[in-house]
Every structure is written in structure tokens, then in C-alpha cells.
UniProtKB/TrEMBL annotation, chain A:
Gene Ontology cellular component annotations, sorted alphabetically: cytoplasm; nucleus
Alphabetically ordered keywords of this record: Cytoplasm, Nucleus
InterPro entries (UniProt xref): CDIN1 (IPR029404)
Taxonomic lineage of the native organism: Eukaryota, Metazoa, Chordata, Craniata, Vertebrata
Subcellular location: Cytoplasm; Nucleus
Protein name: CDAN1-interacting nuclease 1
Record organism: Equus caballus (Horse)
Chief place of localization: cytoplasm
Length: 256, 1223
């Protein structure tokens, strides 16, 4: 697939993925510090002062950069605070999310622009970035589906599984298991990210083992690579690859 | 007793008569009147004879076996330990008996100590019980010993007490030393780590310590009861509350007489062959380098006497008068492999020549005697031996002593070895495989609420997480199940609030149990959690080394022995510990319910009838399958029953039996009120009646093996034991012929029952007590002539799988070859007999009426595979039929429901109304259509079944048979399918419609397009368009530049924008990688892009470029986006407000855009008017409001002008418009 990254851009994408993961770890670590009531109050006052002086200046964005916090998340803090002040009832999460997705719903024009600016300038958080990530994930699933079709491996995809009422659904369940590098594979999960220790363990706990618990051993493809040492559960039924496997053995039907 | 034996030895009574006398209480006509006369006065002693004989032999052999592996039934060490009294030490309180070989200093207290010890040991069980303390360890397998109070040491039975007085005196150190005196069950046998408190038959290492163990009189209970014991009454309480047996008085007298008799001949006993003064040092380490004394037939002291004893002993074995056949075989093999005779004081036991035929001289005076005796017995047991595995046969056939003493037997064994094909294969260690998720039972529809569903989802994951952790850690030293996992398990169990969740979890648990603890019945054969017996796979020469290595490696050594206590080897340990840690009453109850149900189901399973074996190899092929199926069912049953027993008796299990009679009585009164967890008595009776004992008894034994001490005393279970005892007695191996059980079936039953009789919680005297009613045992088996019992369903592999302890025989022989026996000596484990499947499994009586009877009759004379095929086809087609109806009729109805719903939604607006109401109205419209299901189902079965039957039956099946079979299959399939459909179709439709409705309602908002047929790209497309993620990312960059902040030199070139929009167009046409959320975002971003084209300061566009770009966007919106484009955003205050900050304001592009939107039908005139109207309500700077009003008016004024009036704006704001143009 030519439109998928070549080797060099692959490594660039890998680097981006790693960067994004590291940044997210950083944000997670500092999240609490930005959510104390004192911090929120101080950010809000600085915001008010800033826009009071010049509503067109990138007040919120600069504030976020200054305190080393993700602009979208800073926008959320201020928006929440703002709504608290202006509405009787505290805003629900879904209202906030919807306003972040579409700032024109924000009753204050200046704030709407500030929030919008934060959202479009944030490289790791925010609805747009989420959408990009989601799109990347989807694109790789499509890629994987095509490869499966190409290899004539019949499968059930996530939607079909969900429709049948499965409680946990990998991207694909093979209707007839195959062997990859000597390991039996019942399902394949596509991950359009770099497999680092932290995310892999989270995935193991939330997804991969759950799949194993229901469907047996399977394969995870980290399209942007992974830390080799993480591929240590092969014998237990979780195989890691950075690309679609080439060594696939299928069940032969009675060769006589 | 001794008198009886003596009269036998003197040949006053024939062996046959004696055995008749023992086995049947009544005299038979065959009896010689003289013999009868000789025996009749001894009648009260009748049932004591066998225990006496067994103990006698153990005692007699005690000088031989201390060196070798311990004798199972009797602690060989005890005699060795006797200072100066090697021969036949008196058994403590047993008084009279012990005097068979009166010690020189007999009555002195000093002498009594040893004798007391002896008494304890004498039946293997003694030591085992002692080890009762270990028992728990065994069961728990080192899992922290929490809980399972295995009944340890002795029971309050009087019978056990003989040694007790002396016990008190003897120094009590050794018992606690588990290293030195591993509980019988705890000898490290193999990797399986089966440590169990086995009772009676444990091979005990010879050592002084043994003598400390409390005497457990396993076989001998009745006689023991009558011994006047100095112990308090505790010991007197017989388990069943019986008083002293009538014979006890005479027994004592007898003993007294014998003692006197003996003292006369005292000094004449023969000198032992090897007077090595070793007697006092029977330490575990001793065995290693002892070389065996050669055995020579010429050295046998008294052929006749040994022959006679061997004969009577063998006859007892043949009549199943001994509790455990394999234990006796083990003992015999120990004699065969005895290394040398322990030194005896010269003064002892010198037999006078005249005493040779009496009991006054030792039976075994040398190794030669032992070997001679053993070979004699083995000759009688050839039939059993020939069923042993190839390895054992080889070792036997190659045994030089055997060759030397009986070349004929050796020849037969060699032949048996050569013809033996069966091989006990190594089981693959079971690996954890998860229970697969099955939508039919596991999806949301099976739960009461979303919450329950999601909770169970999490629980499944926690369960496996715990399991994986256990797999990783349980073999690490110091790891503790409860500490490591207990709290997590309890937290998880705590979430199982609803009863329905419990049943889901229990189902998962039980399935996982079966899956993990029973490897699939493939070539490797099913082995219930037993670790592979590596030892048996190795050559004998390596055994010693390997075993020592193992001893070092495996900390808690598991010793098998011929009668290991019940354990939970391998993965079973996880499930046991899980139950213990969960300690949830609800869970246990659900588990018991579920296990009971499954046991009933499997026990009642109509196992296939084997084909009559008249045909050639082909029936053999079938037969393999049937055997395998039988084995799978049997092993599953055993596993389930074991866990049922474990859970059911868990609350009652305690370390010891109740200390006093009163307490015991009150417990009994209480417990007798409690209904059994599973009506095993009824099942056993049914099993016997239907001749399915071979299936029922093995699992029942597993169940009972986990019972607590009280259980055998309860009337209900007492009846079960009585039945089992009767069955045991009736399994005479030599009987063959019509109506008899197959040989291996019997052997399996004998092995498992023998093992059960040795379990610590089973009263040791039970076996001999019940004898009285044996004659009454007549099972009415007329009903089913072809029960499983008569079918060769048990093969050697199954026998060894169920009874791994039979392998101890091989190990014993192997250790003889290797010249070293492990310190634990012999290894004997329990033997579980297996049963055969019955021929005539009655078909389930589901179909009634004449047709059904005809169908039954039809099958009667056909090969069983025909019925199986038809039933299978019917079952599958019926089930497929239901699935087919679901996929066609029901799916159609669901589609109808969806479109009806769509209509309704359109009618009622997006809100839709109350979902419950909607659902009701849909269902009332659609459910009546369910009636078609029956017609369609019938058609389906009619269409599909015949082909399937035809494909599965042999080509040569006669046409008439074939067509009947097809017919029946159609009928059965239809019956099955229609029964299900008529009962469930309405509910099914409801459920599916409901699911569809909620899916639809949920999907309502965000992605309506996702459901529709997606317009994909053409087949020729090679999907070269840029990826959606890439485009979103690019557009985001543009937007961020537009939204600022940016450096002065930064900007977006029109070319770049044009390219971007071009790519967007390509991508939207290809759509290969596009998902609805991405498309929605792209649509929104494209609108934002459009509104940014207006404000002039943000890009370097001239009007023409801007308009071209807008045209591109308009065409994308119109032709390429398949999701709704949020065009109203163009007129959102925020986007319009962007204009407010710019000078000069640029309105013409906006007006152009609005006109084009209407023109292209992307937005309605009224919609735009509404937006503009609401725009005007917002707060704007004064001049801006004015311009806005003008725009509004302009738009209203020229609603349908095809070419937008650009000038209009300029007319209003001429200078500003030009400014833009110039910029």
C-alpha cells in the first residue's frame, strides 16, 4: 500500500507515536497539579486578565504553554470554570465535550475563539487529535482487513461480533485459526501505535488477555513497532508483530 | 485364628474349605464333615481370619523387608526396631495374637513397648493414620494448610487402640519428624506432588520412629475391639457402636494357649540366615548400597508350609476377602525383591524340626522363603499380572529370582510382555485454555441487566488473571495462594450479587475445571491433572539417581505408595484453593448444584453400545471411539465428583473425628437430618441395576474419598458403603462368562474400591465388619442384560489413568533392578478400577407412542453406529434449523422492524418517543409472523436431514434401512426444532427486535451514515488517495495557522489549499480507509475552512481564488460527503464574528456562498433565513449589526438568482470590498 508510510516515514511515524506517548505520560503525571482549585482559580484569573486586555491575543494558548500543559486540556479547565460561573448547574461532561468539539456553542464569543485556538493548536489532545488517532487506527484496521481478504482468511470483524453480543471484541476473529510462526492464532488486533511498555501493559490488561480469556491465543500487530522484550507471552498465547505476518500456516483439508 | 491357620498347615482342613468358611458364613454341602467340625467351633472368629492372616504375613516378613522398600500393609520397620526381638514380637494389646511368636522375655513391660508399636503398624494403615497430621498437608498440597482438616490420626474407635498404652510410654519424637517419617502419602513420588495422607497401605520406611505412630488397625478392627485395653473408653467406641464381637473371648484364650505352647519351644527357633545386627538401625539412609542376598530355591526351609500359606492367601485374594488387591500385590513384590534377612538373635525363633508345620516357627526364615512364597502367590495371580503395563511385565519377566524359582511363570510373563501392546503413555501436561465465549449463553440477553453483564465481563477477566498468576507462581517456593490471590478472589466474588451472575460464574468455573484438568481424549489419553510420570518412562538404572534428584528438587515430597490419599494434583489445586479462598457460601451452593447436575447428566449419558465384535477390523475402529468416549465421560465424572465431594463435605471436615461418643452421637443425629448433596445411593443402586457400575462406582469413590469422618457412620452413607462392599466381594476375577463383568472392568473397580477402603476417613474396620450380610447381595440386573459392565470399556490406559498407584508396582521392581530403593521404599499408590460402558444404553424416552417404539425397534437390530448417526444428524439439523430461522425469518423481521422504526422516527422527529412503547408496537406487529417459523423449520429439516444421513452412513446400507433412517432423522430433527421454535420464537423475535431497536436508537445521533450502504470506490480504484488521518491532520494545521497565533511569514498559500481540497475530493471518492467519525470531522473542518476564506487578513487569496476554493468546497459538500455537513456553522455567531474583527469586512463571499448553498440544495432558503435571523439577535458592534441586516435583506431580496450578485455587497460597502480585492 503505497499510501502507507515507507520505511523512512515509518520511522518518523514511530517517533511521533513515541513522542505522543511520552507527552501523554508527562501530562498524566502533572494532571493533578493543574487541577487543584488554587491552580484553576489562578489560571482563570490570568485568562480573564489577558482577554480583558486583548481578546484577540492567544491568551489561553500562551497560558497553557507557559505552565506546560496541553492547550486543549487548559481550554477545558477554563471552560468548565467559566460555565460554573455563568450557569446555575455545573456543566455536564457531555456539554463540555460538545463545546470543545464545536466551540461555536460556547456562549462567550471570546472564549469560543480562545478555545478553538487551543484545540487546533494542540498536537496531542483535543477532539481533532482524537479524531486523527481514531482515523489512523481505522485505516490500519482496513489495511489489515484487506490483507486478510487477500490471504483468503475468513474472519468476523468487530461489528459482527458486537452484533452477536460478544462482550469483548478484538478487531478480527478468524473463523478458522491459523498458525503464525508456529503459534496458533484465533484473533488479530491492530494497534496503530508504538508498543511501549506502559501502553502494552494497559492493553494486555484491558484487551489482549480478555481476548485470550474468550477466544484463545491471538496476534497483536503494532504497526509502528514495539519494544522487543514485550513479546514474551508467545507461549501463553499473545504474539506481537510489527507487520502483517508472512509465515502463516493454514489448516489443510484432507490432502490425500 | 491362629488355630485355624494351624489346622490348615497341618492339613486338617483343606484350603478350599477354609476359604469357603471364610467367604460364606453358612456351611456348604461341599464341606467335609470333619473339616466342618474342625471349623465350626471357631465360627465367631470367622471374620477375623483374613485380618489375622494379613497381619500374620506382615509380621512374618518384618525381618526381611526392613531393608527393602517398606511393606505397604505393615510397617516393616517396626519389627526391625525391636531390640532383640526380631522374630515375631507380640502385638501389644492384641495379646494372644502376638504370642504366636512369643518373645523370650515376653511379659515384661519392656517387651511390651515394641509390641505395642508393632500393633500399630501392623496394617499399613496404622502408620498412615498417624500421619494423619500430614494428611492435611497432603490434601492441601502445601497451600498453606489452611483449612482442610483432614482427619488425621486415629479415630476414636476402640479398634485402633491396641498400642496406645505403650504409646504413651514410648518416646514420641518421630511422628513429628516428617522428613524422617513422611506421612505415607507424602513421599515424593513424582512431579505431581501428590502428597496425601494415605492410610493404610502406605509403605513405610523402616525405622524406629515408626513405632511411635499410633497403631492403626486397619484390617483388624473387630478383634481389636475385644482386646481389653487399658485405654479409656474413647478407644472403645467402635465406629458403629458395636460392642465387643462375640469372638473376642475365645481369641484371648487362644492367644494365651498359644503363648504357653510357644514358650515351650522357645529356644529352638532357627538361626536367621544373615545374622547382621542391624535390627536397631533402620534409618532411611540405610537402603542405598545394600546388596541383595541371592535367593536360591534350594534354601527354602519348608516348601509345604509356604505353599499352603500361599494357597490360602491367594484364595483370599481371589475371593476379594482382602480390602485392597493391589496393596497385597505390592507386598508380594516386596517379598520378591527382599534384599536380606535382618539379623535375629540366635536365641529367638529357632524352630524345632517338629514345629515346622505349625505357627511356632517363623514362616519366612530366609530370603529364599520369601521369594519362594512370593513366586507361589504370583503364580496364582498371573491373570492380574498379565494386565499390568508393559514396563511392569518386562521387569517381572526379567527378574532373575522369578526365573530361578519358577521358570514356567517367567515364561508366561515373558509371553505376556511380548504380546502386550498396551502402553501407558505419558500424559501431556494440561495447559490452560480459556473457556470460549459463546454468544448463545454469554451475551447480554443472558443477563438481567447491563450492569450484571458488564460485571460478569470483568469477573471473567479477573478469574483468568488470577489463574495466570497462579500458573506463574504456584511452583515458586514461598508463594502462597491465599496471600497472593485471596483478597482479589473475594473482591471479585463480592461483586457477584445476582443469583444469575453466580450461575454464570459457576458455569465458567466448571467448564474451566473440566477443560484444564482433563486433557482432551486424544492420543495422549486423558489424565486428570496427574503430572506425567517421568519415572516410569525411564530405564530402571536411572531411576535411583533421578529419584534422588527429584527428592532434592521437590520440597514437599509427594509419596505415592500403593494407597495415596486423595489429592488435587496440578491444576486441580488451583480450583480447590480458589474455592477455599473465595469462601463464598453462594458460590459453593451454586457450584454444588451445577456439579450435581452435570454428574447426573454424564452418569445417565446413553453411552454408545459397542458393535457386536463379529465383524472385522472396522468394528474395532468404532470401538476405539467408544472406549475413548467412555474414558472421557468417566474421567470427567471422577473430576466433578471429587470436587462435589470436596465442596459438599467442606463444612464438616475437621482435623479429627469427634473426641467422645456423646459428641459423635449428637453430630450424627444432626447430620442425619441433612439431605445428601447428591443422591448417590440412588445413583449407585441404579448403576448396579443397569449394570453400569463400571461408570458409576469410580466417580462415587472419588466423591466418598473426600468425605469427613462422620459420613461413613451416617445411615445413608453406610448403605452406600455396604453396597460397595458387596460389590467388591462380588467382583471375583476368576469368574468369567455370560453376564459377568469384563476382567479389566472388575480390576478397575477392585482397584478404586481398594483404594477407598484405605482412605483415612473410612473406618478401617468397615471392610471386615460388613461381612455378615454379604450373602444378601443380589443385584437385580435382569432389566438390562447388556450393561456397560459387560463391555470391554476399560483398557489398560484407563486403568492406569484412574489408578496411577498401580504404577508403584513397576517402580518397586525398577528400584530392585537399579539396586537402590529410594528411602521411601516402595511406592504404592491407589488403584482405581475402571468400568466398562454398557452395551445397551437405553435411548432417551423422549419420543412417545407407537412411532417411537417402531423407531426403537428399527434401531434394535441395526449396528449402534446407525442410531448414533441418526441421533447426531437429528440433533445437529434441529439445531441448525433454529439457527437458520434466526438468520432468515427473524433477521427479516428485524429488518422490517428497523425500517418501521425509521419511519416512525421520521414521523415523530428525531426524538422517536418512548423506546419501550416503540418496541411494544413493533413486536405486536411482527411477532405474529413467527408462526411461519414452524413451517419453515419443517421444510428445512426435511430438506437437510436425508443428505446428512446418507453422507454419514456406509454406502452399502440397504435402501430400505437408509430411507427409514432418513425418515427418522427428519422426524427427530423436526421434533427438536419445532419444539424449540414453538416455545421460543416469540421471545426470540422480541429479543432480536429489542436489540435492534436499542442499537438503532443509540446509533441515532452520531453516525447515521454508518448504517447505510457505504458507497465505496470503484473496483478499479487502487486506493491511492491520501489517508483521512493525513488530511485531517493537514487541515488542522491550516486551521491552526488561521486561528493563530502565527509568525508573520507563516501563511497558507492558495495552491496548498487547492491541493488539499483536491486530495479531500479524491479521498472522499475512494473512501477505502474512511470511517464515519473521520468523515464527520472532515466535514466540520471543511466548513470551518470555508468560513476562514471570508476574513481577508488570514490568507493571501484574491477573490477569484477564494471563489474557486468555495466552488470546490461546495462540490465536495454536495457530491462527496456522505455524512451531513454542518453547514449551519457557517452562520454561527463565532464564524460570522470572525468577520467582525476584520477591517474591511468582506461580505460578498459569504453572500455568494449562501446563494450557492441554496442553489445546490445544500441548505434551504428558510433554514438560512432562520440562521440569519438568530444571528441578528446576538450582541454585535453597532456597525456590524447594520451590515448584517443589510446582508439579510440582500439575501431575502434575491432568493433565486442563479448567479450571485457580488456587486450587491460592494454596493453596500464599496470601499471595503475593493480593499479586499487589492490586498
Amino acid at each position: 500500500m503505497e499510501n502507507f508510510p515507507s520505511v523512512s516515514s515509518q520511522s518518523q511515524a514511530t517517533l511521533l507515536s513515541i513522542f505522543s506517548q511520552e507527552y501523554q505520560k508527562h501530562i498524566k503525571r502533572t494532571h493533578a497539579k493543574h487541577h487543584t482549585s488554587e491552580a484553576i482559580e489562578s489560571y482563570y484569573q490570568r485568562y480573564l486578565n489577558g482577554v480583558g486586555k486583548n481578546g484577540a491575543a492567544p491568551v489561553l494558548l500562551e497560558l497553557a504553554n507557559e505552565v506546560d500543559y496541553a492547550p486543549s486540556l487548559m481550554a477545558r479547565i477554563i471552560l468548565e470554570r467559566f460555565l460554573q460561573e455563568h450557569e446555575e448547574t455545573p456543566p455536564s461532561k457531555s456539554v463540555i465535550n460538545s463545546m470543545l468539539r464545536d466551540p461555536s456553542q460556547i456562549p462567550d464569543g471570546v472564549l469560543a475563539n480562545q478555545v478553538y485556538q487551543c484545540v487546533v493548536n494542540d498536537c496531542c489532545y483535543g477532539p481533532l487529535v482524537d479524531c486523527i488517532k481514531h482515523a489512523i487506527g481505522h485505516e490500519h484496521e482496513v489495511l489489515l482487513r484487506d490483507l486478510l481478504l487477500e490471504k483468503n482468511l475468513s474472519f468476523l470483524d468487530e461489528d459482527q461480533l458486537r452484533a452477536k453480543g460478544y462482550d469483548k471484541t478484538p478487531d478480527f476473529i478468524l473463523q478458522v485459526p491459523v498458525a503464525v510462526e508456529g503459534h496458533i492464532i484465533h484473533w488479530i488486533e491492530s494497534k496503530a501505535s508504538f508498543g511501549d511498555e506502559c501502553s502494552h501493559h494497559a492493553y494486555l490488561h484491558d484487551q489482549f488477555w480478555s481476548y485470550w480469556n474468550r477466544f484463545g491465543p491471538g496476534l497483536v500487530i503494532y504497526w509502528y513497532g514495539f519494544i522487543q522484550e514485550l513479546d514474551c507471552n508467545r507461549d501463553r498465547g499473545i504474539l506481537l508483530k510489527a507487520c502483517f505476518p508472512t509465515d502463516i500456516v493454514t489448516l489443510c483439508h484432507g490432502v490425500a | 485364628m491362629a488355630a485355624v491357620l494351624e489346622s490348615l498347615l497341618r492339613e486338617e482342613v483343606s484350603v478350599a474349605a477354609a476359604v469357603r468358611w471364610i467367604a460364606r458364613s453358612a456351611q456348604s454341602s461341599e464341606d467335609d464333615p470333619g473339616e466342618a467340625a474342625a471349623l465350626s467351633p471357631l465360627r465367631p472368629l470367622r471374620k477375623e481370619f483374613v485380618p489375622f492372616l494379613l497381619n500374620f504375613l506382615r509380621e512374618q516378613s518384618s525381618r526381611v523387608l526392613p531393608q527393602g522398600p517398606p511393606t505397604p500393609a505393615k510397617a516393616p520397620g517396626s519389627s526391625a526396631a525391636l531390640p532383640g526381638r526380631p522374630g515375631g514380637p507380640p502385638r501389644g494389646s492384641r495379646g494372644a495374637r502376638s504370642q504366636l511368636f512369643p518373645p523370650t522375655q515376653l511379659p515384661s513391660p519392656a517387651a511390651e513397648v515394641p509390641s505395642a508399636r508393632r500393633g500399630g503398624r501392623r496394617r499399613g494403615p496404622g502408620p498412615a493414620r498417624e500421619r494423619g497430621g500430614r494428611g492435611p498437608a497432603g490434601l492441601e498440597e502445601g497451600a498453606g494448610g489452611e483449612g482442610l482438616p483432614w482427619a488425621a490420626s486415629r479415630r476414636p474407635r476402640g479398634s485402633g487402640s491396641p498400642g496406645s498404652p505403650s504409646l504413651a510410654r514410648s518416646d514420641p519424637p518421630n511422628l513429628s519428624n516428617l522428613e524422617e517419617f513422611p506421612p505415607v502419602g507424602s513421599v515424593p513420588l513424582g512431579p505431581a506432588g501428590r502428597t496425601k495422607p494415605s492410610r493404610r497401605i502406605n509403605p513405610t520406611p523402616v525405622s524406629e520412629e515408626r513405632s511411635l505412630s499410633k497403631p492403626k488397625t486397619c484390617f483388624t478392627s473387630p478383634p481389636i475391639n475385644c482386646v481389653p485395653s487399658s485405654q479409656p473408653s474413647v478407644l472403645d467406641t467402635s465406629p458403629w457402636g458395636h460392642g465387643l464381637p462375640p469372638g473376642c473371648r475365645s481369641l484371648q484364650e487362644e492367644r494365651e494357649m498359644l503363648r504357653k505352647e510357644r514358650s515351650k519351644q522357645l529356644q529352638q527357633s532357627p538361626t536367621p540366615a544373615c545374622p547382621t545386627p542391624e535390627s536397631g538401625s533402620p534409618l532411611p539412609s540405610r537402603i542405598g548400597n545394600l546388596t541383595a542376598e541371592p535367593a536360591d530355591p534350594a534354601g527354602v526351609s519348608s516348601h509345604r508350609r509356604l505353599e499352603l500359606v500361599a494357597l490360602i492367601y491367594s484364595s483370599c485374594l481371589a475371593e476379594n476377602l482382602v480390602p485392597n488387591l493391589f496393596l497385597e500385590l505390592f507386598f508380594i513384590l516386596q517379598l520378591l525383591t527382599a534384599r536380606r534377612m535382618v539379623a535375629v538373635k540366635d536365641s529367638d525363633l529357632e524352630p524345632s524340626p517338629g514345629a515346622l508345620d505349625s505357627l511356632e516357627s517363623p514362616l519366612f526364615q530366609s530370603v529364599h522363603d520369601c521369594v519362594f512364597f512370593a513366586v507361589q502367590v504370583l503364580e496364582h495371580q498371573f491373570q492380574v499380572l498379565s494386565c499390568l503395563d508393559k514396563g511392569t511385565l518386562k521387569l517381572l519377566a526379567e527378574n532373575e529370582r522369578l526365573l530361578c524359582f519358577s521358570p514356567a511363570l517367567q515364561g508366561r510373563l515373558q509371553a505376556a510382555y511380548e504380546s502386550s501392546v498396551a502402553k501407558v503413555s505419558l500424559a501431556m501436561p494440561p495447559s490452560a485454555q480459556a473457556v470460549s465465549f459463546q454468544p448463545e449463553t454469554d451475551n447480554r440477553a443472558n443477563f438481567s441487566s447491563d450492569r450484571a453483564f458488564h460485571t460478569f465481563k470483568k469477573q471473567r477477566d479477573v478469574f483468568y488473571e488470577v489463574l495466570r498468576e497462579w500458573e506463574d507462581h504456584h511452583e515458586q517456593p514461598g508463594w502462597d495462594f491465599e496471600k497472593g490471590l485471596g483478597s482479589r478472589i473475594r473482591a471479585m466474588m463480592g461483586q457477584l450479587s445476582a443469583a444469575c451472575s453466580h450461575s454464570h460464574f459457576v458455569r465458567l468455573f466448571q467448564k474451566q475445571l473440566l477443560q484444564m484438568c482433563q486433557s482432551p481424549g486424544g492420543a495422549g489419553g486423558p489424565v486428570l491433572g496427574e503430572a506425567p510420570d517421568v519415572l516410569s518412562m525411564l530405564g530402571a538404572d536411572k531411576l535411583g539417581r533421578l529419584r534422588r534428584l527429584q527428592e532434592r528438587l521437590v520440597a514437599p515430597q509427594s509419596s505415592g505408595g500403593p494407597c495415596p490419599p486423595p489429592t488435587f494434583p496440578g491444576c486441580q489445586g488451583f480450583f480447590r484453593d480458589f474455592i477455599l479462598s473465595a469462601s463464598s457460601f453462594q458460590f459453593n451452593q451454586h457450584l454444588m448444584d451445577s456439579l450435581s447436575l452435570k454428574i447426573r447428566e454424564l452418569n445417565g449419558l446413553a453411552l454408545p453400545q459397542p458393535e457386536p465384535s463379529d465383524e472385522d477390523g472396522e468394528s474395532d475402529v468404532d470401538w476405539q471411539g467408544e472406549r475413548r468416549q467412555f474414558a472421557v465421560v468417566l474421567l470427567s465424572l471422577r473430576l466433578l465428583a471429587k470436587f462435589l465431594g470436596f465442596v459438599a463435605f467442606l463444612p464438616y471436615r475437621g482435623p479429627e473425628p469427634p473426641p467422645t461418643r456423646e459428641l459423635q452421637d449428637s453430630i450424627l443425629a444432626l447430620r442425619s437430618q441433612v439431605p445428601p448433596a447428591l443422591d448417590v445411593l440412588a445413583l449407585l443402586q441404579q448403576g448396579l441395576r443397569a449394570r453400569r457400575a463400571v461408570l458409576t462406582v469410580p466417580w462415587l469413590v472419588e466423591f466418598l474419598s473426600l468425605a469427613d469422618h462422620i459420613v461413613p457412620m451416617l445411615d445413608y452413607y453406610r448403605s452406600v458403603f455396604t453396597l460397595l462392599l458387596h460389590l467388591h466381594r462380588s467382583l471375583v476375577l476368576s469368574k468369567e462368562g455370560e453376564g459377568e463383568m469384563c476382567f479389566l472392568n472388575k480390576l478397575l473397580l477392585l482397584a478404586v474400591l481398594g483404594w477407598l477402603f484405605q482412605i483415612p476417613t473410612v473406618p478401617e474396620d468397615l471392610f471386615f465388619l460388613e461381612e455378615g450380610q454379604l450373602e444378601a447381595f443380589e443385584v437385580d440386573t435382569v432389566a438390562s442384560e447388556h450393561g456397560l459392565d459387560g463391555m470391554p470399556v476399560v483398557d489398560q490406559h484407563l486403568l492406569y489413568t484412574c489408578c496411577p498407584y498401580i504404577g508403584e508396582l513397576r517402580k518397586l521392581l525398577a528400584s530392585w533392578v537399579s539396586g537402590s530403593s529410594a528411602r521411601s521404599g516402595g511406592f504404592v499408590r491407589k488403584i482405581t478400577p475402571t468400568t466398562t460402558t454398557s452395551l445397551g444404553a437405553q435411548p432417551p424416552r423422549t419420543t412417545q407412542g407407537l412411532q417411537a417404539q417402531l423407531a426403537q425397534a428399527f434401531f434394535h437390530n441395526q449396528p449402534p453406529s446407525l442410531r448414533r448417526t441418526v441421533e447426531f444428524v437429528a440433533e445437529r439439523i434441529g439445531s441448525n434449523c433454529v439457527k437458520h430461522i434466526k438468520a432468515t425469518l427473524v433477521a427479516d423481521l428485524v429488518r422490517q422492524a428497523e425500517s418501521l422504526l425509521q419511519e416512525q422516527l421520521v414521523m415523530q422527529g428525531q426524538e422517536g418517543g418512548d423506546p419501550a412503547q416503540l418496541l411494544e408496537s413493533l413486536c405486536s406487529q411482527l411477532c405474529p409472523h413467527g408462526a411461519q417459523a414452524l413451517t419453515q423449520g419443517r421444510e428445512f429439516c426435511q430438506k437437510k436431514s436425508p443428505g446428512a444421513v446418507r453422507a454419514l452412513l456406509p454406502e452399502e446400507t440397504p435402501a430400505a434401512v437408509l430411507s427409514s433412517a432418513e425418515h427418522i432423522a427428519v422426524g427427530l430433527a423436526t421434533e427438536k426444532a419445532c419444539a424449540w421454535l414453538s416455545a421460543n420464537i416469540t421471545a426470540l423475535i422480541r429479543r432480536e427486535v429489542k436489540a435492534a431497536v436499542s442499537r438503532l436508537l443509540r446509533a441515532q445521533g452520531p453516525e447515521p451514515a454508518a448504517r447505510g450502504e457505504r458507497r465505496g470506490c470503484s473496483r478499479a480504484c487502487e486506493h491511492h488517495a491520501p489517508l483521512p488521518s493525513h488530511l485531517i491532520s493537514e487541515i488542522k494545521d491550516v486551521l491552526s495557522l488561521a486561528a493563530g497565533p502565527r509568525d508573520p511569514e507563516e501563511g497558507v498559500s492558495p495552491e496548498h489549499l487547492e491541493q488539499l481540497l483536491g486530495q479531500l475530493g479524491q479521498m472522499l471518492q475512494c473512501r477505502q480507509f474512511l470511517c464515519p467519525p473521520a468523515e464527520q470531522h472532515l466535514a466540520k473542518c471543511s466548513v470551518e475552512l470555508a468560513s476562514l476564506l471570508g476574513p481577508p487578513a488570514q490568507h493571501q487569496l484574491d477573490r477569484g481564488q477564494a471563489r474557486r476554493l468555495l466552488h470546490m468546497l461546495l462540490s465536495l459538500w454536495k457530491d462527496n460527503f456522505q455524512v451531513p455537513v454542518p453547514l449551519q456553522l457557517l452562520l454561527s455567531p463565532r464564524n460570522v464574528g470572525l468577520l467582525a474583527d476584520t477591517r474591511p469586512r468582506e461580505w460578498d463571499l459569504l453572500l455568494f456562498l449562501l446563494r450557492e448553498l441554496v442553489e445546490k440544495g445544500l441548505m434551504g432558503q428558510t433554514e438560512i433565513e432562520a440562521c440569519l435571523g438568530s444571528l441578528r439577535e446576538a450582541q454585535w458592534p453597532g456597525d456590524f449589526s447594520e451590515e448584517l441586516a443589510t446582508l439579510f435583506n440582500l439575501f431575502l431580496a434575491e432568493p433565486h438568482v442563479p448567479e450571485p450578485q457580488l456587486r450587491a455587497c460592494e454596493l453596500v460597502q464599496p470601499n471595503r470590498g475593493t480593499v479586499l480585492a487589492q490586498s
